[in-house]
Design a protein that fits this description.
The chain is built from 17 helices and 17 strands. By secondary structure, the protein is an alpha/beta fold. It folds into two domains: 150 residues, Response regulator (Rossmann fold, 3-Layer(aba) Sandwich), CATH 3.40.50; 275 residues, tm_1862 like domain (pyruvate-formate lyase- activating enzyme, Alpha-Beta Horseshoe). It is globular, with a radius of gyration of 22 Å.
Amino acid sequence: MVGVIMKILLISANRERSPYPVFPIGLSYLAGPLQEAGHELAVLDLCFEQDSDSVIVENLTNFKPGLVVISIRNIDNVSWPKSRSYLDGVKSVVRCCHGHSPVVVGGSGYSLMPVEILAYLEADFGVVGEGEELLPRFVKILERGEKPEGLPGLLVRGCDSFIPPLPVERVGSPARSLFDVARYQRDGGMTNVQTKRGCPFNCVYCTYPLLEGSRMRLRPVTEIISELRSLVEECNVNYIYFVDDIFNYPPEFAESLCNAIIAENFPLNWSAFINPAFMSPELLDIMLKAGCDAVEYGTESGSPTMLKNLGKSFSVEDVRYASLLCRERNVDFVHYILFGGPGETQETILETFALMDEIQPTAVIAMTGIRIYPGTSLYRTALQEGVINLSTNMLEPVFYLSPQVKDILAELVTAQAIIRKNWVVPGLEVNISDAMLDALRMFPVKGPLWKLIKRMGRSRVKPM
């Protein structure tokens, strides 16, 4: 460890707490390399702050950082028609820092449209993609008083040149010591852990390949186990959510990790996002033995036509079989649905409702409309169909809605979902509201709140 070179204030700008607050894992991945480089760090997490402006100014005044790093998890709530943008709130954070320290922004939300967001926020610098390796290099250049142009993945306000980011070859472990892990475990019911990065699949709407690349980089199982041990012994964590895009791919890696968790006999339960095509009886049994108590399927549709149109890697039969495995073992499972994609019709929507009736998941969480992001196949489709054009402001929440159902989507989905008490439709406020979430949190539950939906007596909808 070298002497302290720079004081750096890390700010997590995320203030969204619905359906539960999410630990700023991206920022914690940056903390370790910066500490190893000798920098003095302070963390400001705005998720639980009532008056963000005053607490930011207080931290700037007392800590006097030489650099402020702001992490942006999401730029909006990706929910139609009840959409809301978070960018004005982040812009307020940046403005509070002006006149105190240079500001660099980054995070998964920022990296979706980095040039446009940097200009909108009026920050000084932007880190695109993974920052564990880039940020320490950037800080070293700043500390020497040199110009930082030319670093892959770095954007400088007012500079037109940009070199695309390089992926981090070795995904390390997050440094959580500066963060309030216990608060997230208490208020959110779980703590997030990442086992890999990269996604080789081709869903038309998905940003994971844009943010992390299509090549999978697996963390060593021994390092994941070490992280879990630290969370259990040092932070009293008893529930984990694996935030991988797909936990069970490659299947042999998931099996190896589960066997290692079993060997450690951690007092942990956990859940994860699962691809139906790679779920086998053997893998599910190992997952359950390792502490899994809930399975989340990113199914998106129950229509063969729509699965193809959305670029999914599995079939309706895969969905049926994966669901049957869960029902046979009496494990809670949920299917996530996206209505309104290319080619969606009233018939394909009803196919989805019929399939969910057949396979009887604990819950179904449905979104209406699909948020369009530059760089995705859906963006190109939207351009071709005239849904958007090259001058459309994509910083505002813009959704793809199939022309065949655009005018009836909200009414049709509400009418069908409201007669099924296991359906949740956030954008239409079917079986979900802030008051309902607060009430559900009163139950002594760890893990996803959707597991509690079976306790609800009837469906509820807030008038639109």
